[in-house]
């Protein structure tokens, strides 16, 4: 008869949760830079327009549980999206809408991105956040925080203004994605499909602002 020690050592390792988060918005708003900042901890030297979708992953730890955050960095350009679109929206746990605070058109496009999600059956139950990127660009015409906040409120999502570029906002980008992961963890159990990995683990930082979002000081 096998001992209990032998039995337990032959069991597969416990599996960790994966959170699939899609990042969408117009071309050039900084989706690739934001996801790279979160996963690699720095601003990329250079980026090219994303074709189809890129994946970035990071293992985080919340309340002692290792969770794989899988960011789907989607193409903003229509011609690079066409064939892939239906794959983005499968089994999505959360949505990050991004606009460029110095580009009003990218803000005006948000209803179309929201509509695309609706058409792909992503209901209001899927957590979503709004991110205004490129806060470091001072002096440029910018989408007002008040207008953006009203839009976010009307769609029941928190607004975050940040910069993927400014080193001072490094934690800020991390905090945004950690906030999403924290929200997902507090929901019902999700997909379990991969063994835990020991790399890329970061501790949870709790949001500190009272509106459920953040604004940068620039
Ligand atoms: N100043 C500043 N520039 C940024 C920031 N984030 C991205 N950029 C720049 O904006 C340009 C576009 O960034 P990407 O991250 O490639 O944009 P994208 O949204 O992924 O674009 P697509 O892949 O075409 O959809 C690049 O030149 C970046 O260097 C930021 O926070 N501040
Ligand atoms: Mg990109």
TrEMBL record:
Subcellular location field: Endomembrane system
Topology in the lipid bilayer: Lipid-anchor
Entry EC number(s): 3.6.5.2
GO molecular function: G protein activity; GTP binding
SUPFAM superfamilies cross-referenced by the UniProt entry: P-loop containing nucleoside triphosphate hydrolases
Catalytic activity: GTP + H2O = GDP + phosphate + H(+)
GO-annotated biological processes: central nervous system projection neuron axonogenesis; commissural neuron axon guidance; Rab protein signal transduction
Cellular component GO terms held in the UniProt record: Golgi apparatus
Cofactor: Mg(2+)
Enzyme class: hydrolase
Region (Disordered): 188-218
Keywords: GTP-binding, Hydrolase, Lipoprotein, Membrane, Methylation, Nucleotide-binding, Prenylation
PANTHER family (UniProt xref): PTHR47978
Family classification: Belongs to the small GTPase superfamily. Rab family.
Name of protein: small monomeric GTPase
Native organism: Scleropages formosus (Asian bonytongue)
